[in-house]
Design a protein that fits this description.
Radius of gyration: 40 Å
CATH class of the domain at 1-123: Alpha Beta
Strand content: 5-15%
Helix content: 55-70%
Order of helices and strands: EEHHEHHHHHHHHHHHHHHH
Distance between the termini: 130 Å
Length: 378
């Protein structure tokens, strides 16, 4: 090291220094520091952030040599970035790729296209061994990232993607079509099971999503995914059990959910829209039989409920408005069925004739029996 290594900066200033080749004096690295001696000793240790410089220093060590350090300039603490950028630009024009600085100087992590290309070429096809993977996994396990660090990372990424929209598109295209392995999905599921979010976490998520609206295409995709999910009986059962458990353990959530539904149904526009968009599917015979059996069991075990329901039904039918409303709906339904049958038979006259012949045969077959029973009643 040179004699000026022991020089200390005055308050409010900092040093711009250079690491040089011990034989030729060629400048190989430009940096900034407040303490030359401490910074020099750090350079002689491993520096994972600058592999190019590290390789150069290691090559000197193998020859039993170390780089020399010299102060280029002492500058104001608020102006060091401009000075460092200027010195790097100057020496890069002289020594070219021999300068080991990856960045252009200052705090901004801006790399030249040439450096980006070299890093990309060196990383392509590189396979991380299983032992290295385990070491990385062990070092990250139990690691807790502070809220402040997460916020800084989030803000940094937002700024980057705002300035480089093409990077976002590139990442999206890279991941499009890729699927997680069943083992990876199982591990994710196991990691999330039993995880309870804090009330603060729910609030943050609510604030973040408030006011957001999906596009029509996204809504269509989400609806299709949901329909396919609930076609699976096991998925429906799991969802039902999870919801029941949650509402049983959170009475305040049950109350809030009930009030929200009541407020929705109190809005006539919502009711009309819901009934209009609802697609009714007639339940299968098997489903109807199950519903009937469950109703019978429930009524047998709850005679008071059956009595109460009967009383409520009688009171309803005693109301003229209710009777008129129901008879009108029945009349409308019958009218619709009649109109649809007329249209169908108009399009399929052969089926109408066939049904007519079947009905005549049935009547001729059971005619005498019906007449005898009718005579007995008389």
């Amino acid at each position: 090291m040179e004699k000026n290594e022991l020089k200390t900066n005055t308050p409010g200033t900092t040093f711009i220094y250079a690491l040089c080749d011990p034989d030729t004096g060629m400048v190989r690295y430009i940096g900034k520091t407040n303490n030359i001696k401490v910074r020099y000793n750090r350079h002689l240790r491993y520096d994972k952030h600058s592999p190019h410089k590290e390789n150069w220093i290691n090559s000197l060590k193998n020859l039993g040599k170390t780089p020399t350090i010299k102060i280029l300039e002492e500058v104001d603490i608020n102006l060091w970035e401009e000075s460092e950028i200027g010195w790097i630009k100057y020496y890069r024009s002289i020594v070219g790729d021999k300068l080991t600085n990856i960045k252009d100087g200052g705090r901004s992590p801006v790399m030249t296209e040439e450096v980006r290309r070299k890093i990309s070429a060196s990383s392509k096809g590189k396979i991380i061994s299983e032992a290295t993977r385990k070491k990385i996994s062990a070092s990250n396990k139990g690691r807790i990232i502070s809220l402040l660090a997460r916020q800084k990372t989030s803000e940094s990424l937002k700024r980057y993607f705002s300035a480089h929209p093409e990077a976002k598109i590139k990442i999206s295209e890279t991941h499009r079509g890729s699927k997680h392995t069943p083992e990876h999905i199982r591990k994710q599921s196991m990691a999330l099971k039993g995880k309870v979010h804090s009330s603060e976490s729910y609030k943050r998520a609510g604030i973040k999503k408030r006011g957001q609206s999906h596009s029509l295409e996204t809504k269509r995709k989400l609806a299709e995914i949901t329909r396919n999910y609930f076609l699976n009986p096991e998925a429906r059962k799991r969802r039902s059990e999870t919801t029941k458990k949650f509402l049983d353990t959170h009475p305040e959530a049950r109350k809030k959910h009930s009030e929200a539904i009541k407020n929705l149904w109190a809005n006539p526009e919502y009711r009309e829209k819901f009934l209009k968009n609802r697609t009714y599917k007639s339940p299968s015979i098997e489903t109807r039989m199950k519903m009937s059996e469950s109703n019978k069991k429930f009524c047998a075990n709850n005679p008071d409920f059956l009595k109460k329901r009967s009383e409520i039904t009688k009171k309803l039918w005693d109301s003229p408005d209710f009777r008129i409303k129901n008879l009108n709906s029945i009349h409308k339904s019958a009218k619709k069925i009649s109109e649809s049958l007329k249209k169908y038979y108009t399009l399929h006259p052969e089926l109408k004739n066939k049904l007519s012949e079947v009905a005549k045969k049935q009547w001729n077959k059971h005619r005498e029996k019906f007449i005898k029973e009718d005579n007995k009643k008389c």
